[in-house]
Amino acid sequence: MLRTIGLMSGTSLDGVDAAWVETDGEAIGRIGPTVTLPYEPALRRDLRRLLDLAPALAPDDPFLADCIRRLTDRHADAVARIRELAWESFREGADLVGFHGQTILHRPPASRPGRNAATAAEALREPGFTWQVGDAALLARLTNLPVVHDFRSADVAAGGQGAPLVPVFHAAMAAALPKPLAVLNLGGVGNVTWIGEDGGLIAFDTGPANGPLDDWARKSTGSDYDQDGRLALAGEPDAAVLGRLMAHPYLEAPPPKSLDRLDFSRALQEAGADRLSPQDGAATLATFCALCVAAAGRHFPAPPLQWLVGGGGRRNPAVMRALSGALDAPVRPVEVAGWNGDALEAQAFGVLAARVRRWLPITFPGTTGVAEPMTGGRVAEP
Shortest CA distance to 329 belongs to which of 288, 367, 294? Predict the structure, then answer.
């Protein structure tokens, strides 16, 4: 068993999650301490700005380099804190770090907005691109630990979506749970893992989740997110805007498929969301998140017995209420299964780091659409 520290900075851009996990990449042993270190407001603003700049950004841009250094330093802080907590808990250290970095641009082959390809097969013949920033070599030096990174690019280069990566971890965590089961993560973008009775996996991005709602709250109130769903709960979803949004071709497209955080930005503008009141706009975006998840369920081979929800979206009562109304099976936070919904993705990258170290596959035909199970990732030694 390896003692790993998994790190995740998701599309919500709120901070870095870190988790200690004992694993060989297949079985999960002890699950140790977790921590979330928020980003200072200036770094969060700059990371959000990177999303807009990324399509035209040069790799040697000074602003990008400054963001990468600050981002990496914060990840090093998270590793240091987890090592302290692990020592207090187990009198043990760590062998390996799994470092996802921050996605600033994700353009997999078959899911680009404005595509002119006649068929999905034609689109898949064109190379995709995925960009996660963070200095793995610097992190290895700062922590004096091997750092596994660059988890997605090999899959995209082989024609896969490069996302989602967490399904193999979800399957390990859910080994004893009744199936079929759906595990839903609501970060900036939503993603779901469907696990069949035989252990088969289907996974893909459901659509926008917290990302547009966070941006809306920031624009409307100056807050970084809709705390406790207060804004959305005070409004009413706009049926006309929802109707236009639900006509987006992504929602009907079969998996494999994945999204960039900003892929629906133009659709939201064209649907007229900007003309809504702060409250009605938030209610509409919370409902849209849930309707995207319901649309995703149509692609499952069999309906799940329940939906387990992780990520920041499970803390928004407006989103959870909308999910319960849109789905036919019970919707519950992952904590009912004994999981930590704030740490799941960080724990997943600890497990994925061990899989990379052992040359085990991390992406699969049913999760990213790659032709066969693939290894991936690279290791930066200290």
Answer: 294
Determine the 3-state secondary structure of 44 from DSSP.
helix
Q: Is the peptide bond before 55 cis (omega within 30 degrees of 0)?
A: no
CB of 333 closer than 8 Å to CB of 316: no
pTM for the predicted model, two decimal places: 0.91
Task: Write out the two tokens for 294.
Answer: 């319901």
Instruction: Report pLDDT digits (tens) over 109-166.
Output: 854 433 333 333 443 445 688 999 999 999 999 999 999 999 999 999 999 999 999 9
C-beta separation of 7 from 97 below 8 A: yes
Using DSSP, state whether 341 is helix, strand or coil.
Answer: coil
Side chain identity at residue 33, one-letter code: P
Q: Does domain 2-165+345-380 have CATH number 3.30.420.40?
A: yes
The SS3 of residue 63 is helix
Q: Give the pLDDT confidence of 239-274 residue by residue, as tens digits.
A: 999 999 999 999 999 999 999 888 898 899 999 999
Task: Enter the tokens of residue 248.
Answer: 């987006």
Of the candidate CATH numbers 3.30.420.40, 1.10.10.60, 3.40.720.10, 3.40.50.40, the domain formed by 167-337 belongs to: 3.30.420.40
pLDDT (tens digit, 9 = 90+) per residue, 24-74? 999 999 999 999 999 999 999 999 999 999 999 999 999 999 999 999 999
